[in-house]
């Protein structure tokens, strides 16, 4: 059947709306009619080929929509169900079986390869040439897409699909890193480096966890103002302030917990240096392969601090995303304040506004 999709034709090029041919869902796939999809930093870095997903490709990995058809082996959803989409995993490796699917041994193949495990793609162009599909198991920048069942999270029919897509990756990454990995206790101190969508999701999670001191670090004043309105007790502009000294002064010696959402080596070192004794820092920010950050191991050995590298918030989406929805519905996780909607025809504007910081979390709507 035919579907409209926004494709990346070549490295760094603007996305183009095209009519593509979509094949039938395989036994383990769900065909979803997209209502909306978040735009994430990962989409941009794959467009620019930091990770070599073959182009042309249909990207998008924060989809939300309605099930149209299901493959013969699908048991978790039926046509008409409302779903959010997250990352894909194999379900059978030791990581998946132990409850850590974001560390699936085939994570790259199932999320970045641009094809099914048998090498086929769900999309073909009008000339019959293949177009990469199954980005994060879903390729949600398409009106219709065949999605791996492992990416699917069933949600209530009353859930606002035009809003909830970002829970599938960016919002889950920030909040999951805090709630699932750092796990700050009530009354503790927490610092987030970067006040974009992932960082502010982490900040909202620290509020949920009842951290007493919540510090937001960024170089854009408007983002810091938003962070303060969402629960930051302190803000630091890293462009004109000494970040580490400021954090140590506010926390009387160093933070208990910290989250780096930037992937910037200088910022990562600031995070490490700002932690107090037995502090715990987590990195979720993506960086280009080969990026290195220096750490003074001679100085930190006696601190007992811990550093964690976190993928997808260390979450099981089918368990964690419904919890985030429940927190949102209870008024305790107002991530909707980060979202701005764009029609799919303005997807390149959404990308540009995300990169400039004009919009925290763009969502394209079909």
TrEMBL record:
Keywords: Metal-binding, Oxidoreductase, Zinc. Its EC number is 1.1.1.90. Gene3D superfamilies: Medium-chain alcohol dehydrogenases, catalytic domain (3.90.180.10), NAD(P)-binding Rossmann-like Domain (3.40.50.720). This is Aryl-alcohol dehydrogenase. It is an enzyme of class 1 (oxidoreductase). It holds the Pfam family ADH_zinc_N. PANTHER family: GROES-LIKE ZINC-BINDING ALCOHOL DEHYDROGENASE FAMILY PROTEIN, NAD-DEPENDENT ALCOHOL DEHYDROGENASE. Residues 12-365 form the Enoyl reductase (ER) domain. GO terms for molecular function: aryl-alcohol dehydrogenase (NAD+) activity; zinc ion binding.
């Amino acid at each position: 059947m035919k579907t409209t999709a926004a494709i990346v034709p070549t490295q760094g090029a603007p996305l183009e709306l095209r009519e593509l041919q979509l094949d039938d869902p395989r036994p383990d796939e769900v065909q979803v009619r997209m209502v909306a999809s978040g735009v994430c930093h990962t989409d941009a870095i794959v467009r620019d080929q930091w990770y070599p997903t073959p182009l042309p490709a249909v990207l998008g990995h924060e989809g939300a929509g309605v099930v149209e058809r299901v493959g013969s082996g699908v048991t978790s959803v039926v046509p008409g169900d409302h779903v959010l989409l997250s990352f894909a995993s194999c379900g059978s490796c030791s990581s998946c079986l132990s409850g850590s699917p974001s560390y699936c041994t085939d994570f790259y193949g199932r999320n970045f390869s641009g094809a099914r495990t048998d090498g086929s793609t769900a999309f073909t162009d009008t000339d019959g040439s293949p177009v990469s599909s199954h980005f994060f198991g879903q390729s949600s920048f398409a009106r219709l897409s065949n999605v791996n069942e492992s990416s699917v999270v069933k949600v209530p029919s009353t859930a606002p699909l035009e809003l909830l897509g970002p829970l599938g990756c960016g919002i889950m990454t920030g909040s999951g890193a805090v709630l699932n990995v750092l796990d700050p206790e009530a009354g503790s101190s927490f610092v987030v480096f970067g006040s974009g969508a992932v960082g502010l999701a982490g900040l909202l999670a620290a509020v949920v966890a009842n951290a007493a001191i919540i510090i937001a670090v960024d170089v854009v004043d408007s983002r810091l103002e938003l962070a303060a309105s969402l629960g930051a007790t302190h803000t630091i502009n890293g462009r004109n302030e000494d970040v580490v000294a400021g954090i140590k002064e506010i926390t009387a010696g160093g933070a208990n917990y910290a989250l780096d959402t930037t992937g910037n080596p200088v910022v990562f070192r600031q995070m490490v240096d700002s932690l107090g004794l037995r502090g715990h820092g987590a990195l979720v920010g993506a960086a280009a392969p080969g990026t290195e950050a220096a750490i003074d191991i001679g100085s930190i050995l006696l601190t007992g601090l811990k550093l964690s590298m976190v993928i997808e918030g260390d979450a099981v989406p089918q368990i964690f995303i419904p919890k985030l929805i429940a927190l949102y519905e209870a008024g305790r996780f107002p991530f909707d304040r980060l979202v701005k909607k764009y029609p799919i025809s303005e997807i390149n504007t959404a990308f540009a506004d995300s990169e400039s910081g004009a919009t925290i979390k763009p969502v394209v709507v079909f």
